[in-house]
């Protein structure tokens, strides 16, 4: 992934620096409002990363020691780690093969009387079935956190991914379509939750540092609960505002490149590329292919691509196979393990040319 950053972002960052307001301030507030509107949410709360956003989302839901939170193992490890941050126990659910996402059925298979929440991921930008899982979570009386780290610009049932979510967390890491370098956002559907999230990200203060500095009279702040320092800077938000204006164009470009990949790869047996689910569209933050009867192993394919100057990556990780979770014995996760073992992510970014794609596909053709 190559971030689409240029002179406009550089100028916006420079203007923030010249303004003298570089910490969380007016640009962060504007970015929160505009991002929330873009993804169809009522409120946005900017944070330092999606990981800290997931942490705050679980704090908001009151999750703690003794609770179980169902998460996909097939996700970046931060999804499971956030559960441990609040002292709860992550329980790994399997995913469906076509989308790489948890479903009502895979979540229900590992649900117990201790389940207090589910963290569902729009994996690689491919949206999960929000309607089904939101309805199920409500019927089970458990909280649902939507890990939308990769999903800016994806759609579900004709709406932006995240629209209507009780709480969703977003990433602006450089591997995402919309980047602020580091940074994230939590979107929620009610003002009370947004207000508490703003306190939680800023040491539990009852008045933000920006409001305190803007006041004409001295403000004696109070600290209402033990909280965190998870703020975004105005420099990052300035870059994010420029990036937000590019989002629709970036999604359109990536979907066009993905369509071309689909056409070219259709000629090669044994490769199954990721596609839109029936209920939505993906932003193709990642373009992965599953090896299904391919004669060459995944690792050999990666090695051969690298030898030809192609920077592909292994498929999405499985957290339960990492040393950090060696103490966890999950229920069987056959689809998760197959996807992480037999998939790879092909290059897809704004600088990718048709010649690049032709070369990548030709190398794959020689390995089929």
TrEMBL record:
MF terms (GO), sorted A to Z: pyridoxal phosphate binding; transaminase activity
Q: InterPro entries per the record?
A: DegT/StrS_aminotransferase (IPR000653), PyrdxlP-dep_Trfase (IPR015424), PyrdxlP-dep_Trfase_major (IPR015421), PyrdxlP-dep_Trfase_small (IPR015422)
Instruction: Output the GO biological process annotations, alphabetical, semicolon-separated.
Output: polysaccharide biosynthetic process
Keyword Transcription among record annotations: no
Instruction: Give the Pfam families listed for this entry.
Output: DegT_DnrJ_EryC1
| Keywords of this entry | Aminotransferase, Pyridoxal phosphate, Transferase
Q: What is this protein called?
A: Glutamine--scyllo-inositol aminotransferase
UniProt organism field: Actinoplanes utahensis
């Amino acid at each position: 992934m190559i971030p689409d950053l240029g002179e406009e972002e550089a100028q916006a960052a420079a203007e923030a620096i010249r303004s003298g307001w570089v910490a969380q301030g007016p640009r962060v507030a504007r970015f929160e409002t505009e991002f929330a509107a873009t993804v169809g949410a009522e409120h946005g709360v900017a944070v330092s990363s999606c990981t800290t956003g997931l942490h705050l989302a679980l704090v908001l839901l009151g999750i703690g020691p003794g609770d179980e939170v169902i998460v996909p193992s097939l996700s970046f490890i931060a999804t499971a780690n956030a559960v441990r941050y609040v002292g709860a126990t992550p329980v790994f659910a399997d995913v469906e093969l076509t989308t790489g996402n948890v479903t009502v059925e895979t979540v229900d298979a590992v649900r117990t009387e201790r389940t207090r929440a589910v963290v569902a991921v729009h994996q690689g930008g491919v949206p999960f079935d929000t309607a089904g899982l939101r309805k199920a979570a409500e019927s089970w009386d458990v909280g649902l956190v939507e890990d939308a780290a990769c999903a800016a610009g994806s759609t579900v049932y004709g709406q932006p991914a995240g629209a209507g979510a009780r709480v969703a967390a977003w990433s602006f890491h450089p591997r995402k379509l919309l980047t602020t370098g580091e940074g994230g956002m939590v979107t929620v559907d009610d003002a009370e939750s947004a207000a508490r999230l703003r306190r939680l990200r800023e040491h539990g203060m009852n008045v933000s540092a920006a409001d305190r500095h803007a006041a004409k009279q001295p403000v004696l702040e109070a600290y209402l609960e033990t909280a965190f320092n998870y703020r975004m800077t105005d420099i990052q938000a300035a870059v994010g505002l420029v990036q937000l204006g590019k989002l629709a164009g970036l999604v359109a470009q990536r979907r066009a490149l993905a369509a071309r990949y689909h056409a070219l790869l259709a000629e090669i047996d044994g490769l199954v590329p990721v596609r839109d689910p029936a209920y939505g569209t993906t932003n193709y933050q990642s373009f992965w292919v599953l090896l299904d009867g391919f004669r060459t192993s995944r690792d050999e394919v990666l090695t051969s691509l690298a030898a030809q100057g192609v920077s592909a990556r292994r498929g999405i990780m499985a957290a339960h196979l990492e040393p950090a979770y060696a103490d966890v014995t999950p229920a069987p996760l056959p689809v998760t393990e197959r996807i992480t073992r037999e998939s790879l992510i092909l290059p897809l970014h704004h600088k990718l040319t048709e010649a690049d794609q032709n070369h990548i596909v030709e190398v794959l053709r020689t390995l089929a």
